[in-house]
Design brief:
227 residues
Length: 227
Amino acid sequence: MEAAAKVKSIFVYPIKSCRGISVCQQAPLTPTGFRWDRQWMVINNNGRAYTQRNEPKLALVETELPNEAFLEGWEPTGRSFMVIRAPGMQALKISLSKPRDIADGVSVWEWCGSALAEGAEASNWFTNYLGKPSRLVRYNAESETRPVDPKYAAGEKIMFSDCYPFMLLSQGSLDALNKLLKEPIPINRFRPKYKSESYNICLLSKSILCLYVYSICFSLYIVGVMF
């Protein structure tokens, strides 16, 4: 069977609303999307998620994971870290081993539950960077489930993504848009997880996997964030 689309790029965003990582060769799939994608997010002192819509400085926060983190079957050790960088800040290391502390009353969009708290060092780092009380939390898959809106994809689930496990952007759509603009917009302004050469279905890996397009993306404000 001929592939309906060719995948040109894969992007993973470990921290919600922060910069993504371009994955060169492979990214393990999980029931909630790519492994590590939107597994963390920054929250305010009420537990509500920050996004680029209200904190555009998050667009300058870079994340780095070990190369082996994208290998199938790899598990972190006590020496495995995510490194976080931002302008004017010292690099912050976050252990990939799950923390034990729990943060209750965490919310993003319609969902509210508990999450794993990454500790005082991470809280101080983001508080200093954003200039307001902040905490870094990690999705707790052992105790929480966040379902996709059943009107669109009943039975599917996500972590801290806005709506769906994946976002697909076609190269043709980007090219057509840039022809209308004075200054072309790069791919990272759209924050896709896949960039493909077609619109509808991607066929990936050794077995056939289908991506069903349930809805268009509504992140128009995010595209306008300049960085």
